[in-house]
Amino acid sequence: MLIRTRPELPSSEITPESVYVNRRTFMRAAIAAGAGAALTAPGTALVGDASAQAGNVWPIANATKSPLSTNEKVNAFEDITGYNNFYEFGTDKSDPARYAGKLTVRPWTTKIDGHVAKPGAYQIEDLLKFPLEERVYRLRCVEAWSMVIPWIGFPLGDLLKKVEPTSKAKYVAFETLRRPGEMPGQRQAALEWPYVEGLRLDEAMHPLTILAVGLYGKTLLTQNGAPLRLVVPWKYGFKSIKSIVRISLVEKQPATSWNIANSSEYGFYSNVNPTVDHPRWTQSRERRIGEFARRPTLMFNGYGDQVASLYTGLDLKKNY
């Protein structure tokens, strides 16, 4: 299996501070202009964002700031939208931004089924009605790079409570869209398609676990998993499944794509753990995109105070 890494960006690709500040100013102005409405009309692209696909991206104006956010400096918009793992569009970090613009994200339906009292199908417009928060979370990739991202979303637990899991529900399984005509990476054998992931039910219900619908004040770009993706900040990034079309409450531990592909390197839990190295590189240190010096990796990606109790008595080296 080929996994390409690029732990740092050359200085020529790092956004100048003046551009970054101007962008944030523009975003605040755009959000303020839309105050009182959750979204502007679909089809409104943000001027100045070369990677924004017209018709797919528009501002979100009703997200409140979450106290669960980190106070670290966020990565530049260009980092977050131009350097991605999304194998459905290719294995290179630049492939998603290059090819994902062809993905159609409206209309979009996410099916919820399995051991729930109220199964159903949710349109993305239904999910955008949940109370939205901006949560600035660290993202730690298994390839030893990281970012800080201003996600917009809502707790997955809010949605799960709405569908009422039964006593048989022990895990939550997720499935990505399979559409090789629009997702050229799915025409290759890099992974089995569609991409699937899973969490224990208590992990899914944890307040830190969110379904993201946006970042940087607007709806998700397709290269970032539009229109709906999972964000579990204490786990490696590949657990944050993108472009979700199905959520199933199941009794047994579900299969996950990277564990299917290589179980010796990618376990079900995939918690950020600096004491458990990947067989081909260390996990004890990481490089924040946009920086040159490596920094120590934090246990549970720095969210240990909130989530360590989920794993009391569990061998985290065996259950990697």
From the N-terminal CA to the C-terminal CA, the straight-line distance is 20 Å
Helical percent range?
Answer: 10-25%
CATH topology assignment = Sulfite Oxidase, Chain A, domain 2
> What gross morphology would you assign?
globular
Poorly predicted parts: 1-54
Features:
disordered N terminus, alpha+beta, 320 residues, 5-stranded mixed beta sheet, 8 helices, Sulfite Oxidase, Chain A, domain 2
Mind explaining what this structure looks like?
The chain is of the alpha+beta class. It has one domain (11-306): Oxidoreductase, molybdopterin-binding domain (Sulfite Oxidase, Chain A, domain 2, Alpha-Beta Complex), CATH 3.90.420.10. Helices cover 17% and strands 21% of the residues. It contains eight helices and 13 strands. Strands 1, 4, 5, 8, 9, 10, 12 and 13 form an eight-stranded mixed sheet that branches. The chain has a five-stranded mixed sheet with strand order 3-2-11-6-7. Strand 12 and strand 13 form a beta hairpin. The longest helix is centred in the first third of the chain and has 17 residues, at 17-33.
